[in-house]
């Protein structure tokens, strides 16, 4: 192997700094790994030669069976509120942290496996993962990244050529994913079950990793909490702006870095409705589309609770400060959301009518059952003076025209050419999102051995803002016979 093809070496600051937060562990041996996908762009970012990853050594590395220099594989411990109920000991029940790589931009990235076998945290689980859900993480993660939304990303997915028992026997796989870190709100909850000192060490580690500017600040733990809140406000606003529903926003699935993590029962909404739920076990609508900002705040309150002893020596004072901080979340979110809505509607400046425009547009979409992606995308055509596309979405086009009057009045104040405004709107209103029925069809084919539909889908999703002739099927909402579509946890 030439020097340039040598895989990167690993570091382990997590294991070094936080000895009580993991169990050293090894991945189960996969006898016959077959590489299904390698993510060339992530591979290059990390300093891997993609063709090495596709070869025999790469396949063994991607399932955790080839140790690279510096690697100390661990199963991370974390706790979590799942659907509101607290589990003090979750952790990597089917996952492992291989270590950290400094990428070609100088950024420390976790390299992590999912589906790598049982660990001390597995409880009743088999430690395994199926091809479909692991490819789904790859697809949705890449789609999110192409939409400009912070996310963990797959480095590769490898088939294990074993069958694993689910509702039926399914082909097994291991996902190798990359993240800014795997620190979660649940990591802090886990540290808090041990001692205040554990929380402090974890917070210091998280600050060094994600907010190094705060290291010398006197108020660093409170400042850190504000940073996490800001990242989450921005992330959730991003999700809302493209109709993304995470589906299982448990505290163990909310990162400190502000990246989207754990694509389980997630989905992009077709018809706009704030009550849309995708997880089959979310009977209360806890993680419904419209409830996501509220749940983010609830999760952040759980993080704040763990930080209380670090914020102030006086407990009451600490609670007062943390409460004030957490009460600021709705305004933070609102600011982020309004910024995105403004861009989606082609507006550049805050105007007194805008909040009303945003809410009335969404109410219009909801009452006329408009596809969220296609409705937003059609706005730019209206700015170009063509209403056919928007009118085609409505049974009663007049309802749209009535809404549009004050919006177009506001746009008329903009000195830019309307084509420029429309082009700017097209750069933030995607033409293509991963629609459930198309993703599921591609995954079913891939699970049966045909990767071609997945390849075609990825071509579309990697350029979501660039509308292309011939791709109309990818922009169509879910056919009615798919209605009631749900995805399942515990995959
Ligand atoms: P998730 O729903 O993927 O975020 O996982 C929630 C928790 O369940 C984590 O602690 C996982 O490690 C664990 N878990 C999920 N599936 C399995 C499995 N098949 N075997 C062992 N643990 C699992
Ligand atoms: Mg999880």
Kindly describe this structure.
By secondary structure, the chain is α+β, with helices and mostly antiparallel strands. Among the domains are: 13-179, no CATH class; 185-337, no CATH class. 44% of the residues lie in helices and 13% in strands. Strands 2, 6, 7, 8, 9 and 10 form a six-stranded antiparallel sheet that branches. A two-stranded antiparallel ribbon has the order 1-3. The model has no long low-confidence stretch (mean pLDDT 96). Bound molecules: adenosine monophosphate and magnesium ion. Adenosine monophosphate is lined by residues 90-95, 121-122, 125-128, 248, 253, 262, 264, 489-490.
Main beta sheet: 6 strands, antiparallel
Alpha plus pi helix count: 18
Mean pLDDT score? 96
Globular, elongated, flat, extended or rod-shaped: what is the shape?
globular
Hetero groups = adenosine monophosphate, magnesium ion
* pLDDT < 50 stretches: none
Which percent band covers the strand fraction? Answer: 5-15%
Structural class: alpha+beta
Give the distance, in angstroms, between the N- and C-terminal Cα atoms: 38 Å
The ordered string of helix (H) and strand (E) elements is HEEHHHEEEEEEHEEHHHEEHHHHHHHHHH
- Strand runs, count: 12
Radius of gyration: 23 Å
Helical content stands at 40-55%
């Amino acid at each position: 192997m030439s020097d340039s093809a040598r895989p990167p070496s690993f570091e382990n600051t997590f294991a070094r700094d936080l000895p009580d937060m993991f169990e050293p562990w090894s991945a189960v041996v996969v006898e016959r790994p077959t590489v299904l996908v390698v993510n060339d762009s992530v591979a290059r970012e990390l300093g891997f030669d993609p063709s090495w990853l596709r070869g025999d050594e790469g396949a063994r590395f991607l399932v955790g069976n080839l140790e690279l220099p510096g690697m100390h594989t661990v199963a991370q411990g974390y706790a979590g509120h799942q659907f509101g109920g607290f589990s003090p000991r979750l952790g990597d029940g089917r996952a492992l942290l291989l270590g950290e790589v400094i990428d070609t931009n100088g950024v420390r990235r976790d390299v992590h496996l999912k589906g790598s076998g049982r660990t001390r945290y597995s409880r009743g689980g088999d430690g395994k993962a199926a091809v479909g859900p692991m490819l789904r993480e790859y697809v949705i993660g890449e789609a999110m990244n192409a939409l400009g939304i912070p996310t963990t990303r797959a480095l590769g997915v490898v088939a294990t050529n074993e069958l694993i028992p689910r509702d039926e026997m399914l082909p097994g796989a291991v996902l190798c994913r990359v993240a800014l870190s795997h620190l979660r709100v649940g990591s802090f909850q886990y540290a808090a079950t041990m001692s205040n000192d554990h929380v402090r060490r974890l917070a210091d580690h998280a600050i060094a990793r994600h907010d190094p500017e705060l290291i010398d600040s006197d108020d660093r733990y409170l400042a850190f909490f504000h940073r996490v809140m800001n990242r989450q406000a921005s992330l959730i606003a991003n999700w809302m702006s493209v109709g993304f529903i995470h589906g299982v926003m448990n505290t163990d699935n909310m990162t400190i870095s502000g990246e989207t993590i754990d694509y389980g029962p997630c989905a992009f909404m077709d018809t706009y409705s704030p009550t849309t739920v995708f997880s089959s076990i979310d009977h209360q609508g806890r993680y419904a589309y419209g409830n996501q900002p509220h749940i983010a705040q609830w999760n952040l309150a759980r993080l704040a609770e763990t930080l209380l002893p670090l914020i102030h020596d006086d407990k009451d004072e600490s609670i007062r400060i943390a409460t004030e901080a957490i009460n600021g979340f709705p305004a933070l979110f609102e600011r982020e959301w309004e910024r995105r809505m403004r861009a989606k509607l082609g507006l550049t400046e805050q105007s007194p009518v805008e909040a009303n425009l945003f809410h009335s547009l969404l109410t219009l979409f909801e009452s006329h059952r408009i596809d969220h992606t296609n409705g937003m995308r059609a706005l730019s055509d209206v700015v170009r003076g063509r209403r056919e596309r928007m009118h085609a979405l409505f049974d009663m086009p007049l309802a749209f025209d009535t809404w549009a009057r004050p919006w177009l009045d506001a746009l008329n104040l903009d000195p830019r050419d309307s084509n420029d405004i429309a082009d700017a709107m097209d750069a933030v209103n995607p033409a293509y999102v991963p629609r459930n029925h198309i993703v599921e069809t591609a995954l079913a084919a891939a699970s049966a051995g045909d990767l071609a539909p997945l390849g075609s889908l990825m071509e579309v999703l990697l350029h979501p803002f660039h509308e292309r002739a011939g791709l109309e099927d990818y922009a169509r909402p879910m056919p009615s016979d798919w209605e009631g579509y749900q995805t399942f946890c515990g995959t």
